[in-house]
Amino acid sequence: MSALFAEPSFADRLFAPPVLQWTTSPRQEITWHEIAQRAPQMAVTMAAYLEQLSVSARPATVEAFEIALRFFAGRVTEADPTCRSVADVGRRHVEDFKTWQAARPGKRGKSLSVTTIRHRLGLLRTFFERIIEWGYDDAPARVPIFPGDFPKPDEPLPKFLDDPTMARFMAAVTADTNQRRRLMIELLARTGMRVGELAALEDDAMVQISETFWLRIPVGKLHNDRYVPLHPVLVDLITDYRRTRGPSRSGRLVDRDDGQPFDRRTVHRYVVAVAKRAGIPSIHPHQLRHTLATQAINRGMSLEAIAALLGHRSMRMTMTYARISDRTVADEYFRVTEAVEANYGQTDVLPDSTAGANMRKLAADHRRMLGNGMCTRPVALDCSFESACERCTFFETGPQFIPILRRQRDHAVEQDQTGRAVLFQKLIEDVDGAG
C-alpha cells in the first residue's frame, strides 16, 4: 500500500492538531499536540504506554488513562518547562499536580470530587508502576506517588428505596401499558443488573435448567458473565414480549425502535417516569440495584449469594450493603429499648398513661414459648439464634419432653410461626418413631 494512504500510527493520531485529536474529551485545556511540542520524550513515552494499554484494556479504560496522563503532562510541562521526560518527574511535580487538581473547578463550578482526584492519582501511580516494571528507558527511578497522596474518600451508603416506596414503584411498573418498557424496568428491579447489562442482553438469554429459569447476563463492567435465577413474573414477561415482538432484528432481547441498543439516558427517563406516576421523587436506575441488594440482606440472604447475584468481583463491594442492615445491632437495640420502655411504663409518674400498657401489650403479643421461659423479641425482627438449641447437633430430646414440644408446636401455630411449628412437629415425630 502506498505510504500516502497508510493507516496513521497511534502516536500520529494522538499528537495530531486539535482538529484531528484522537480523544473527544469535552475538556481539553491542553492537547497532546502541545505536550509533544513542549516535551517530546514525555509525550512519546506516554503514547507508547497508551498504545500497549489499548491492546488489552477497554476503550473506556484507555480514555481514562489518556485524560489523567494528558492533564498531568500538561500541568508538569507548564509549571516546570525543564521537565521534558517521564524520567525527570519527581515528588515536587506530583505535589504541584495535587495542589493544582484540588483548585480546579469540576462540574457545575464546584471543586473536583475526592473520587475524581483519587481516581486520577491511582491511574498515574499505575502508569509509573508499569513502565518501571516493563523496563521503559524513560522511567523514573521509583514511583513518585505514595499512598499518603490519596485523599481519604467518603463512604456513603448506597441510595435505595425503602419497602413502602418500592412497593409503590412496583405497582406503577405493573400498571405500565408499554410491554417493552415494563419488561426493562422489571428486569432491573428483580435481577439487580446494571443498565449496560440490560442493553446487552441477548434474545436467547433466558434458559431453563431443570425446573428453574435463569437469565444469562453477558460480559460487562467487570469482564465476567453470570447466570441469575428468574422470578416467574419475569419469565412470563419475557415470553409474552418475545411472542408479541416477533424475531429479534439485532439478536438482542430489547432494542430501540430503530434497532439500536438502548442508551443509559433513555432507560433513566423510563425509570423517572414510572417513579413520577408512583409519586416518588426522581430516582436513578442504579437505585433499583441497591434496593434489591438491601432487600435481600434484610431478609437473610448471604453476602456470598448477593455477590453472585450482582456480579461483584470483590466481597468488599457487597459488604457495603451489610452496613445498611446490621441485625446484631438491631437485636441489641430493640432488646434494650424494650426493657427501658417497659421500665418507663411501670413508673408512678404517669399512672394512668396508656403508653406503658401498650408497651406491655406489645411485649405480650411478641412472646414466644421456650423450653424454660418466653422470648419477647418482636416478630418483625429477625433473630440469628431462633430455635438454635433444637437445631444443634448436640441437642437431644425424648418421650418425657413430648408435652412441652407439643405446647411449643401449638404455640408456634397460633403465632403463624410456620418454621418453628414444622421444627417441633419433626421433633415430635422423631421421638414417636424412636419409641
Write a structural description.
The chain has helices spanning 10-15, 32-38, 40-56, 59-79, 91-103, 114-133, 163-174, 179-191, 195-199, 232-245, 264-277, 285-298, 303-310, 315-322, 327-345, 354-366, 388-391, 402-414, 418-434; strands at residues 206-209, 212-217, 226-229, 368-369, 374-375. The protein has 435 residues and is mainly α. It folds into 4 domains: 3-149, no CATH class; 163-322, Orthogonal Bundle (hpI Integrase, Chain A), CATH 1.10.443; 326-381, no CATH class; 387-435, no CATH class. Strands 1-2-3 form a 3-stranded antiparallel sheet, with helices on one face. A two-stranded antiparallel ribbon has the order 4-5. Strand 4 (368-369) and strand 5 form a beta hairpin.
Terminal Cα span: 93 Å
Strand content: under 5%
Tell me about the biggest sheet? 3 strands, antiparallel
Shape: extended
Structural class: mainly alpha
What is the H level of CATH, i.e. the homologous superfamily of the largest domain?
Intergrase catalytic core
Q: In percent, how helical is the residue content?
A: 40-55%
Alpha carbon gyration radius:
31 Å
Indicate the topology.
Blueprint: H1 10-15, H2 32-38, H3 40-56, H4 59-79, H5 91-103, H6 114-133, H7 163-174, H8 179-191, H9 195-199, E1 206-209, E2 212-217, E3 226-229, H10 232-245, H11 264-277, H12 285-298, H13 303-310, H14 315-322, H15 327-345, H16 354-366, E4 368-369, E5 374-375, H17 388-391, H18 402-414, H19 418-434
Antiparallel strand pairs: 1-2, 2-3, 4-5
